[in-house]
Amino acid sequence: MQEKVRCAIVGLGRIGSMLEDDRLREKPCTHAGAVASDGDCVLVGGCDPDGERCRRFAERWNCPGVYADLGDLLEATKPDIVHIATPPETHLARVESVLGSSARVIICEKPLALTGDEAALIAHYHQRGTLIIMTNHERRYSLDYLRVKQHVEEGTFGNLLCVSAKIYMGMRRSPIEMLLDDGTHLIDIVRFLTGYELERPDAVRVVTAQSEMLYIRCSAGGIPVHMDIGSGRDHIVFELDLSFSSGRIRIGNGLYEEYRSEESPFYEQHRSLVSTGAKRLRKTGYFTNMLRDAVRCVRDPQALPRSTAVDGYRAVHFIDQVRDLMCEGARESCSASSRTLSRNAGGGFRYHY
Fold first, then answer.
1. Which of 204, 206, 205, 210 is nearest to 171 (CA)?
2. 143-275 belongs to CATH 3.50.50.100
3. What is the largest CA-CA distance in the chain?
C-alpha cells in the first residue's frame, strides 16, 4: 500500500480553507477541503501569520500542525504538495521559499503573479524540471468544461467560429481588478478550449456614471475572441458563448446550454438552433480533479499536469498586454482632447469627462 501524499497549505483564508463553510458551493471548494476528501492525501499542516485563522484551521480540519512561518512549516511537516493560497503579490517569494524543500509539487493560486515578469520567473522554476508548479486554473478540471473541450475537438457542432465571454463581478471593481482575479480563469479557459494562444489583443475602456467597461478583442488560432469585463452590476456573471458552424454552447457559473442546427420550425428553407436538452452538471469535480492531477504528478515523476505555471504566466502576460494598450490609448486620447487622466487602483487610467 502506498504512503499517503502529504499536503500543507500556505494561506488559511478563503480559498485555502474558509469557503468550505459556504453552504451553496459545490464541495470541495477549497484546498483544505480537497485534501480532506481525498483518500490518497493527508493534511499535515497549515501556515498563516494570522493566529485566529490558524486556530480555526486547526479546529476545522483536526490539524494541529499550524505555523506562522513557512520555513517552520516545511521543516516540521515535510510535505509532498504545498498549496499556496496567499495573495498574488506574495506568490514568487512563497515559491522560492519552497524550492529545495521536500515538496515535489506546488499548487499555486491564480493569478500566478501580479506582473508578467514575476509570473515568468515562477514558470522558469517549473520548467527547470526539479519541481512541478501548477496554477489552480480550476475550470480545466471541471467536467462541464471538459465536455465542451471534447465537443470542440470532435467537431460535434461543426467548426468553432468565435468565442464571446463576459465577466461582471461587482458594482465598483475596476475591469483590471476583475481581469487579475476571475479574468485569469477566463483567459486560461479560452486558451484551453480552443487549443491556441490568445494573440493581437485590442482593448477599449468605456466609463459612464453607472459602470466601467473594458472590451477586449483578440484571436485564438484565427478564431475571433471577444471579452466584455464590467462593473455596475449587483450580481456576478462568468459566461462563455461558443458559436459553431452548426451549433452553439453557453457555459459559465451555474450555466450550461447546448444547441444544434436543425430544420427551422419558424422559417421555410432555413435552419434554426434547437436545444439538445443537455443538463448542467451539479457535480463537476473541479477541485477534486485538480488535486488528483497533483497526486498523479507526485506518484509519477514523468507526469505532466494539465495546468502548469506556464499557463499561469500566459494569462498574466496577456493581461500585461491589455494594460499596456490601455495606457497607450489613454495617453493618445489625452493628447488629442481636453480630457484629464488619473491612475486608478487597477494600475491603468480613468477618463474624467
1. 210
2. no
3. 73
Q: Give the integer Cα–Cα distance in Å for 276 and 312.
A: 34
Q: One-letter amino acid identity for 173?
A: R
* Identity at 214, one-letter amino acid code: L
70-108 pLDDT per residue, tens: 999 999 999 999 999 999 999 999 999 999 999 999 999
pTM of the model: 0.91
Q: What is the SS3 assignment for 39?
A: coil
CA 167/CA 183 separation, integer angstroms: 7
Q: Write down the CATH number for the domain with range 5-139+286-308.
A: 3.40.50.720
Q: How far is CA 263 from CA 164, 243, 246, 272, in A?
A: 25, 18, 11, 6
For the chain, domain boundaries: 5-139+286-308, 143-275
Query: 301 pLDDT exceeds 90?
Result: no
Residue range 139-153: average pLDDT? 98
287-317 burial: b if 16+ Cβ within 10 Å, else e: bbbbbbbbbbbbeeeeeebbbbbbbbbbbbb
Cα separations in angstroms, 325 against 159, 286, 288: 31, 33, 38
Q: Which candidate, 215, 136, 116, 226, places its Cα nearest to that of 175?
A: 215
